[in-house]
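Cast an eye over this sequence plus tokens and explain the fold to me:
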Amino acid sequence: MRIRHVEVFGLHHDSEAGVYRASLSLEVAADGGARGDRLHFLCSADLPATAPRDIVVQALLDDALRQARRMPGFRRGEEPIEIDPNFRRSA
């Protein structure tokens, strides 16, 4: 599975919990596949409110990938997860 595009929605810092939270939508396709599917994740990143946006978004993406790897097909190693070389991010 290749991640071709990531969209970040509702990015905010939860000052009470001290973490960033957002919803991430990952457009994915099987190797060589033209048709894309979307996976949605509720993500968090334990970073201070002053963290640069790029670092926050990367940490949220890391959390989404961690969650994806726990999904049955990926957990058993049936399908690897990789970032497409032409990857796009909308944040």
About this structure: The chain has one domain: 2-90. The mean pLDDT is 85. The radius of gyration is 14 Å. Helices lie at 53-68, 72-75.
